[in-house]
Amino acid sequence: MIRPHFPTRFLQWGTPMRERTSGRTVGGFRNLFLQGPAVTLLLLWMLVPLGMTLWFSFQRYNLINPMISGFAGWDNYTYLLTDPALWTAMGNTLLLVGWVLAISVIGGTLLAVLFQQEFFGRGIARLLVIAPFFVMPTVGALVWKNMLMHPVNGVFAWLSNLLGLPVIDWFSSMPLTSIIIIVSWQWMPFALLILLTAIQSLDDDQVEAARMDGAGPLAIFWFITLPHLKRAISVVIMIEMIFLLTIFAEIFVTTSGGPGLASTNLAYFIYIRALLDFDVGGASAGGVIAIILANIVAIFLIRTVAKNLET
Amino acid sequence: MNPTMTKKLLLTLLAWGIALIVFFPIFWMILTGFKTEGEAVATPPSLFFEPTLAGYHTVMARADYLKFALNSIVISFGSTLLALIVAIPAAYSMAFLPTKRTQGTLLWMLSTKMLPPVGVLMPVYLLFRDMGLLDSQLGLTIVYMLMNLPIVVWMLYTFFKDIPKDILEAGRMDGAGTVQEVLYLLLPLTLPGIASTGLLSVILSWNEAFWSLNLTTSDAAPLTAFIASFSSPEGLFWAKLSAASTLAIAPILIFGWMTQKQMVRGLTFGAVK
Amino acid sequence: MYLKHVLPLAGAATLASFAAHAETITVATVNNNDMIIMQGLTDEFEKAHPDIDLEWVVLEENVLRQRLTTDIATDGGQFDVMTVGTYEVPIWAKQDWLVELDDLPESYNEDDLIKPIRDGLSQDGSLYALPFYGESSMMYYRTDLFEKAGIEMSDQPTWDQVQDWASQINDPDNDVYGICLRGKPGWGENMAFVSTLVNTFGGRWFDEDWHPEINSPEWKEAVSFYVDLMNKYGPPGATSNGFNENQALFSSGKCGMWVDATSAAGKFYDADESQVADKLGFAPAPIAKTPKGSNWLWSWTLAIPTSSDSKDAAKTFITWATSQEYIELVGEKEGWTSVPPGTRESTYENPKYQEAAPFADFVLNAIQTADPTDSTLKPSPYIGVQTVNIPEFQSVGTQVGQMIGAALSGEQSVDAALDQAQRSVERTMRQAGYYD
To answer: Which residue of C has its CA nearest to A77?
Structure first.
């Protein structure tokens, strides 16, 4: 198949396949070489800032007040962990991630089934429905805030007036819900894109056979389509979760975490510490807590998802 | 009318209805960009109006759009290229030479993405200052490369794992070394997958708005920074904001639409098959 | 050795800028109207100073503040001219972060700068920043609505009167709301207004030992009044309305009254942008128990960070942008209502300005009566009318602002919100070492 016309000995740093099962050390060496750059870079990316973050988290370090300095011990941590706002922020983070995941996975699956059907202008309709994924989160949030959800000039307010319904003041009466709506609008198309892809590889014969046996569309969806999508759904959950845990721009642009703490998530909470209070020590402690949380989530949730991916 | 036709019509109606609702915010934004400021806030909203380019003129006069756009292109494609170069060997070894630690490494890589960037802003800012990387395309390129690396590695890994082992085995029997194996066998087979991974990485880099705002000032500022100067109202600002937003998302939206077939085709090979 | 511009495209850009042979200075500024006019006059400046090129970084206020503080505190050197507020200047000057401006040219005429503004930017007698525009707060109202309701505006309105008037002119069915006030959380947004309200209700931020008084009876009375007033006669979505949003609302005729920055006045007289140009009235900021601290004092200023590489060019620029000539240039080019107000007495003596801006004397008086050193009924340890000029205030103001936002939206009761705010301010002050 491949006939290299030059001596390949130099290039053959790997061991032949047959020996690999026994020779783990050699394989390990080769792994090191191949994964080296990626792992090293990420390690550096993780460790250098992380190392500095850890160091700062034990310092009294406020950007705008250099008078405050010196070793802080566990002060930054106790200060943060006793702050009731931290727990609210964590709760909001989980709510946000959970709801958006649920909406985008369920909505994405249903839409994928719909957009898989034959209908007129399917190509263009598909382009329109995945478009929000390409839009910058900042822009998306600005459009929703100023042109749709605005209680005086927004399209929603006008629609409510038209239908004789009370105007909803989205960002003050249901801040977290509003953000969930905006974020879902951005991420559901991504789920749709992935799930639509997956659904296309569904074996038509199998569906046909089931139909012959008298299975209705619901049964086909439940017993054939859904199991087939299991792996794709896991992919969606995993990728989205990574991004949703650190949602920031949408909150920054719309509610600034308020009113009160109603829409403050962990990322925004750390932002307040770091860039509104300029308390680098406290923000670093927050960062460390976020890393620990991220790893707990990684172990806990991704493991279960990853199991799905193995098959 | 026969029942299949009726069904098809109903489906068309439903699917288009949903597509239009989902697309409406973008449509509305594009439309508002061509209104005057007065029309932009009019109640009831005006659908029919005489289009004006006034908003675009103001935006263009205030900021050098092409410079921002060029930065966005260089940074998002540059970082994607770098990420692919680093990720391909890593994904290769994880897929074909798995060890006990492979899963763990992969999960660890992904978990690095869950750290809120704001938590490490200060250290990174200080490092960049000392290395002269503030406000440079290279600096942001590196950050984006690192930011997307875990996802890129993971996606490539799923693509590589799906390559039938016997093909590689056959190649090896013929005396192909690792480099040939990767270059002549693996890459051609997984090219669609690599392409869609790259596309995803370009989109994510293009839309990232935290690092770009904090690590650049003017020379290397991409379109997300361009938007930031229009994002808060000064008097009536809806038309200007819409025009600026349309300019900022147009390249990536068109790029995304043009490549979405490719993206879907690539994805069918790997993780979501 | 610097890694900058390694990529070919960046290299090309650098070559292009070298070719011009001019010193480039990076100016960071807010996207407020007056600054955008300044950016629009770039060509005028570069024509007069061919050896200097201006590079603009225009950002919204919050993003700008965070970028500038990060940069100046880490000595990043990314900017040559920074747009900062009266709050930052004394704090940053004390840290030696700003260049002392002690050798300004004779023609600049420092003595022309309005005194309270100038004092706020000086440390031991020398200036550390030059005021670009200055403002106090006052009340705007719609003369047509007042006439229709048969209301007579008084020389010094009180908040009780304001509440009464708001109830009379409030007409939500026709999209007219009795009163618009800031509700968007932030120390420079809702707290600027709420602080003045608390001042005039007799409250203060801190007692003389730096213990916060956020849940004192005065605060509770003031904030309850504010929340009640806004819920009854305010526009929907008040918690997202800051200065700019309210300005848009008022100029499109949706507010009967508005208490906010004097710097909005010019824009309202511009008939192209405003629907209320011919029915605009103004009055001093309303008072309650005391007139002390009922109107704020703020200015946006241009300063040079010590980390700048082009201090001389930067100085040339900031003296130009805050000079009398600049004000005249804007007057000629953009119209006299668009000139940056509140910085120079000569502006207010200018007949052209007086003619175009009937509010001129009024604004000057408001600015001159604001006294940051004595703005609370009970004695306080701090300087500032709507701010407390200590580094911790950004944090404190943000926290309290969030809580008052929660009270305004009904998320929490006023008492609960203020109690929570009090606790968090106590934590911050203790953490900062004001007391144990």
So the answer is: C431
Q: Which of residues 60-89 of A touch B (CB under 8 A)?
A: 63
Q: Does B137 touch chain C (CB under 8 A)?
A: yes
- Which of these, C192, C388, C190, C369, lies nearest to C292 by C-alpha position? C369
Does some domain include residue B3? no
CATH code where residue B169 lies = 1.10.3720.10
Our count of domains for chain B comes to: 1
Q: Measured between alpha carbons, how far apart are the two ends of chain B, in Å?
A: 37
Give, in degrees to the nearest 5, the angle at Cα A74 between A69 and A79. Answer: 85
Query: In the 3-class helix/strand/coil scheme, how is A149-171 assigned residue by residue?
Result: CCCCCCHHHHHHHHCCCCCCCHH
Q: How many other C-beta atoms are found inside a 10 Å radius of the C-beta of residue B124? A: 21
Asked if ipTM goes beyond 0.90, one says no
Instruction: Kindly tell me the burial class for residue C389, based on how many C-beta atoms sit within 10 Å of its own C-beta (0-12, 13-18, 19 or more).
Output: middle
Contact at 8 Å (CB) between A260 and C412?
A: yes
Q: Is residue B33 domain-resident?
A: yes
**Around Cβ C55, how many Cβ atoms within 10 Å?**
18
Q: Taking the domains of chain A in order of start, what are their residue ranges?
A: 10-47, 75-310
Fold classified for A75-310: MetI-like fold (1.10.3720)
Asked if the C-beta of A287 comes within 8 angstroms of chain B's C-beta atoms, the answer is: yes
Encoded tokens for C423: 């606790």
Residue A24 has pLDDT above 60, yes or no: no
Q: Is residue B138 part of a domain?
A: yes
Q: How far apart are CA C210 and CA C28, in angstroms?
A: 34
Q: Is C234 on the interface with A (CB under 8 A)?
A: no
* Domains of chain C, each with CATH number or no CATH: 8-134+298-360 (3.40.190.10), 135-296+369-431 (3.40.190.10)
Query: pLDDT class for A41, splitting at 50, 70, 90?
Result: confident
pLDDT in tens, C322-362: 999 999 999 999 889 889 999 999 999 999 999 888 888 88
Q: Which residues of chain B have a CB within 8 Å of the CB of C63?
A: 213, 228
> CA of A282, closest CA in chain C: separation in Å?
10
Probe site for chain C from B66, B229, B236, B237 (most C CB atoms < 10 A): B229
Q: Is A73 on the interface with C (CB under 8 A)?
A: no
Q: Does C31 touch chain B (CB under 8 A)?
A: yes
H/E segment holding residue C137? strand C130-142
A62 interface with C at CB cutoff 8 Å = yes
The mean pLDDT value for B10-14 works out to 91
Q: Which two tokens stand for residue C119?
A: 């004092």
How would you classify the pairing of strands C130-142 and C81-85? Answer: unpaired
* Cβ-Cβ contacts under 8 Å, B61 against chain C: 40
In chain A, where does DSSP find H-type helix? Answer: 17-20, 24-57, 75-81, 84-116, 122-130, 137-143, 155-162, 170-173, 175-200, 204-212, 217-220, 226-244, 249-254, 266-271, 280-297, 303-310
Instruction: Please tell me what DSSP assigns to residue C297.
Output: E
Compare CB distances from C36 to B62, B74, B218 and report the shortest one's residue.
B62
- List Cβ neighbours of A216 (8 Å cut-off, separation of 6 or more): none
The 10s digit of each residue's pLDDT in A284-303 is 888 888 878 777 776 776 66
